[in-house]
Amino acid sequence: MSGAAQAQRIGVIVSTYNKPQVLAPVLEGWRRQNDCGFELFVADDGSGEPTRQLIERVAADFPVPLHHIWQEDAGFRLARVRNLAIRAATDCDYLIVTDGDCIPLPGMVAAHRRMASAGAFLNGERLLLAEAFTARFLAAPWPLGSESTVRLIGRTLKGELNRMLPLLLPVLATARSQKLPGLRGCHLSFWRRDLLAANGFDESYMGWGREDSDLAARLFHAGIERRNLRGMPLLHLWHPEAKRDAVNRNDALLAACIEARRIKAAIGLEQLDG
Q1: What's phi and psi for 148, nearest 5 deg?
Q2: Where are the domains of the chain?
Q3: Strand-by-strand arrangement of the 126-128 sheet
Q4: Cα separation of 99 and 94, whole Å?
Q5: Quick one: which of 103, 127, 130 has its CA closest to 231?
Q6: Please, which residues bridge with residue 188 across strands?
Q7: Shortest CA distance to 86 belongs to which of 202, 248, 253, 207?
Q8: CA-CA distances (angstroms) from residue 155 to 3, 45, 133, 170, 233?
Q9: pTM value?
Q10: Cβ-based burial of 175 (10 A; exposed 0-12, middle 13-18, buried ≥19)
């Protein structure tokens, strides 16, 4: 498949785990989107009561449908909770997948809608906030994502954001490729039909790492290509690096997937009720 295709209804999947103070300004960023033709799904990997209360409070006057997709806390199971959200998004034909520590700019949904193309998924950019700036922001949040481009550029000059170029580029999608390096799991979007055909994220990946690359590799095997979205970065709040004690095992799983040219997840959407 190739060519332009208009997404009719977009679903945004935001993953989170026990960080309501961080999730709150992220949800505010999605509240302020210029394009309100979407639904928001918070994919919650077992958070406690404070996160539930936050989502319930925010949902009361949110401008689009806001769904809380929760699973029991049984360790790092990001792939599974994302699959639960994919399954719940039955009215959506296109899905943006991101994290609960990434604030969108107001044009995020509109950019993904405009740049979506048949036979491809999008991988977007992020700007990293400095540790001290993140702490100051979380102590008294403001609509950071709605600041002007000039003001955000000024923050890069002060060392509060790590890069300027993504703020200067026009919104565009690069040429198609089947390259895995540089994939950002915090900023992806897909046709839901392609995710269903690939059986979603592979829940064989337990612990941090490589579940996003696995999905991309399987989509490549199915003939789906990657395009990079430029000019519309997410603002990624600083946090300590996740534990990477499972990365060697997950690397081996990814290598086996690539060698076998597998398309469908071994444990994915079709196995959710099993």
Answers
A1: -65, 155
A2: 10-271
A3: 102-103, 234-236, 126-128
A4: 17
A5: 127
A6: 97, 123
A7: 202
A8: 38, 33, 10, 19, 15
A9: 0.94
A10: exposed
E strands in 72-171: 94-99, 102-103, 120-123, 126-128
Residue 248: pLDDT above 80? yes
Report which of 256, 151, 273, 161 is spatially closest to residue 210, judged by C-alpha positions: 256
Average pLDDT, the chain: 94
At 130, list the tokens: 């400095």
Q: For the chain, count helices (H), then strands (E).
A: 10, 11
Summarised one tens digit per residue, pLDDT across range 24-44 is 999 999 999 999 999 999 999
The residue type at 236: H
CATH tag, 10-271: 3.90.550.10
> What is the spatial distance between Cα 224 and Cα 207, in angstroms, rounded to a whole number?
26
Q: What is the CA radius of gyration of the chain?
A: 18
